[in-house]
């Protein structure tokens, strides 16, 4: 990324985002020029963004950042879309005290950045008819990460003993894609099934990822295991199956078998698509969405105005 010239504010991405530079093309064009990855500009930066998960396993390390000298007046931003269950530094007060702002999926974060799709994406998805459920298996799963603090692997295995699950990811793989065009292929594949096993790699409030939203977008019922408050992120009340509502996996499987046999009962979980999005969902989730990096620039501009002599 080219360093900005006479930008009003300068924001430095200090480290990598899962082994590659952050994709600034996803940042709003109006503020894109305020960002750089040139670490030689560290002393000039008004704010420095640290991707915490990469500090856990990469270079620089957590210890390197804790020892880094912070220029006077510079803001440090801790950025993560991952759960603190998997990256304990995020829940370590001794480490997090180095940062002025937290940018994360948590709604209590200083800058909230959600996995939830935008209002326009929901609108376009709901304009499309639900595709035919042509797959032989009732359930599909895409799971590749080895993180398993939620015991999702064991959970999936127990379900697989009673119901056929087509697993296309690296974890518990038993099915291959005929072609792979990335996310497009994934969504097209999911759409052919009645249910999608949506199992988060950690269980934490607000940690509701694309695993929950992707099936909903393509007219499939998520069988969800993850955030205790997932209902806050649901576009309508009866649109998913929360595994935490069942006393055991056999009880869950029995209910899924009932829905598989009773087409009317199953379709009740798709009827939400014909109604307006729930008002609480729109107010709490969609209307609060804003590009987090635009939000960061706005905060820096506001800070400069407050500091300017009168």
How would you characterize the overall build of this protein?
This protein is of the alpha/beta class. It is built from eleven helices and eleven strands. The longest helix has 16 residues. The N terminus is likely disordered.
Task: List its salient traits.
signal-anchor, membrane, elongated, 310 residues, GT10-like_C_sf, single chain
Report the structural category: alpha/beta
In DSSP terms (H or I, runs of 4 or more residues), the helix count works out at: 11
Largest sheet: 6 strands, parallel
CATH architectural group of the largest domain: 3-Layer(aba) Sandwich
In N-to-C order, the SSE pattern is EEEHHEHEEHEHEHEHEEHHHH
How helical, in percent, are the residues? 25-40%
Number of beta strands: 11
CATH superfamily of the largest domain: Glycosyl transferase family 10, C-terminal domain
Question: Would you identify the regions where 5 or more consecutive residues have pLDDT less than 50?
Answer: 1-6
The CATH class of the largest domain is identified as Alpha Beta
Overall pLDDT metric = 92
Domain Fucosyltransferase N-terminal: 9-115
Keywords: Glycoprotein, Glycosyltransferase, Membrane, Signal-anchor, Transferase, Transmembrane, Transmembrane helix
Membrane topology: Single-pass membrane protein; Single-pass type II membrane protein
Pathway: Protein modification
